[in-house]
Design brief:
The protein is of the alpha/beta class. The chain has a five-stranded parallel beta sheet, with helices on one face. The chain has a two-stranded parallel sheet with strand order 1-2. Strand 1, helix 2 and strand 2 form a beta-alpha-beta unit. Helix 4 packs across helix 10. The chain starts with a helix and ends with a helix.
């Protein structure tokens, strides 16, 4: 019923449109138009020159540090084992991130930029976690667009995240920490597309390997990956050299004529 009331649906790529076709009849899906992923517009048109020495830490710990201030108990209120597993995964990832953070401060001259997840509380990071170093080599990024921040980095340290797409397109190396924390199989089970990031990441097997990578002058360059190229075309329409925002706005304006 809700589908019937819609005049226009903008899909990122053929993947999105095909999901509508599977759910509704094909003849009803002529109003589903592929326009591309707006999130990747700036990646297409950014100046990709990068001279930064900053290391970026990508956070994904919203069950521990939710933007609303709700406690971790809120995520456990329904006694779902999947929520429990998610919290354990986030705790392991957070502890490893903090170990890497202190190692970088003590053993390198790199500046650190922290990027909270959109569902995380920036205020709590400032007050409770990183407050001692925010006036020195550490900053918390609060900018709107992820791709601009990634483009400013020498390298990022991150759990598996959908941001692997921006890293890949901007040729910014990633160090994925999930093999150390034992979370790769868990991420594959709940987010198989996100798990593709392992294909273009540097994946230390243990903390010693991680610390060695953090001390390297240069990280290995990202190589072209056929699986991700296919994903970019099929799910994001990225092979078309047009702005997704412009393509979407043109469709809306045509509808309003």
């Amino acid at each position: 019923e809700a589908f019937e009331r819609l005049d226009l649906i903008l899909a990122w790529g053929k993947l999105g449109k095909n999901q509508f076709i599977k759910t509704f009849k094909k003849e009803k899906c002529s109003k589903v138009i592929v326009t591309g992923n707006p999130r990747l517009d700036l990646v297409k048109f950014l100046d990709k020159k990068n001279q930064s020495k900053n290391l970026g830490f990508i956070c994904r710990f919203n069950s521990l540090n939710h933007a609303s201030g709700q406690s971790t108990l809120f995520s456990l209120r329904n006694a779902k084992i999947s929520n429990y597993e998610s919290i354990i995964s986030q705790m392991d990832g957070f502890m490893l991130m903090m170990e890497a953070y202190y190692f970088v401060l003590k053993n390198t001259s790199h500046n650190i930029s922290i990027r909270p997840h959109p569902l995380e509380s920036v205020t709590r990071y400032k007050k409770d976690v990183f407050h001692d170093n925010l006036k020195g080599r550490v900053s918390i990024d609060e900018s709107l667009d992820l791709s601009e921040w990634i483009a400013s980095l020498k390298c990022s340290i991150t759990p598996l995240s959908s941001s692997f797409i921006e890293h890949y397109l901007l040729k910014v190396p990633m160090i994925c920490t999930d093999a150390i924390s034992g979370n790769i199989d868990y991420i594959k089970s709940i987010q198989p597309t996100t798990a593709l990031g392992i294909e273009v990441s540097n994946v230390p097997k243990n903390k010693h390997d991680l610390f060695d990578m953090l001390e390297q002058k240069d990280m290995p360059k990202l190589k072209k990956n056929d699986k991700i190229e296919e994903l970019l075309t099929y799910a994001h329409n990225f092979n078309k050299n047009v702005s997704a925002v412009k393509a979407g706005s043109d469709q809306i304006l045509n509808l309003l004529k």
